[in-house]
Amino acid sequence: MKLGNILAAGALAVAGAAQAADPACSAASGPHTTALVELYTSEGCDSCPPADHWLSSLFSRGFRADQVVPLALHVDYWDYIGWKDPFARGEFSVRQRKLAAMRRPVIVYTPQVLLQGQDFRGWAGDDFTRQVARINSRAARAGIALTIRAVEPAAIQAELSATLLDPSERKSAAVYLAAYENRLASDVNAGENRGRRLEHDFVVREWIGPIGFGESLKLEDRRALPLLPGADRKNLGIAAFVQNRSTSEVLQALMLPACAG
After folding, report:
1. Residues 6+ apart with CB under 8 A from 78
2. pLDDT digits (tens, 9 = 90+) for 183-212
3. How far apart are CA 177 and CA 242, in angstroms?
4. β-strand partners of 173
5. Which of 31, 112, 149, 189 is the most buried (most CB within 10 A)?
6. pTM for this prediction
7. How many CB atoms sit inside 10 A of residue 24's CB?
8. With contact defined as beta carbons under 8 Å apart, do 82 and 190 qualify?
């Protein structure tokens, strides 16, 4: 059996197990690779709103969740210029810098799009569609399953399963888990975007990782992902991805919107 067929079979096995567990509020990755799209953005950056809108529009423009997993990570290093981004977290700035340090030249900026862990400046054009299609054509190198057991006032109760399909990647691979929120908005009254109402989707609100695989090719975990007061269930979801920490390459990604309840 060819390697591609083996990888595809492994991914389908993970998918089948998750769907059998709770099809109403579970998701599993498929045999092909889903592209992770990370947008590093800030409400203090006047060139960021077009990128925020672009990320929000991906699904309305025809992309599917089995093709792309979009996440908006708001950084805090522009807060000093007059407006403190309410969605920014210092750990996102740290992640952006760490990923940038793997490349030469080292460049950190906003808005920055990372596609499969690498800087991608052609996000606003047709090259994005071509690159996503190229990524989607690859056999999956990891399988992921997600289940939301409950959405409570203070947290999302989530279960995660991830399986590596290539034993050689065990030492370098790690899993990341995030809670995201849609339909967020700010009326900005200072800084470069003063006077504007900014709207955002797929905003990461809680971030866990890296979680290593240890001595196994399979990782299973349960987590409570904290929510801010007033979060609306219909705007919430979770996402997970497996990434090589040495190369920044993303092996697989998956997202799961919170189910109606």
Report:
1. 42, 44, 45, 85, 110, 191
2. 999 999 999 999 999 999 999 999 999 999
3. 9
4. 244
5. 112
6. 0.89
7. 9
8. yes
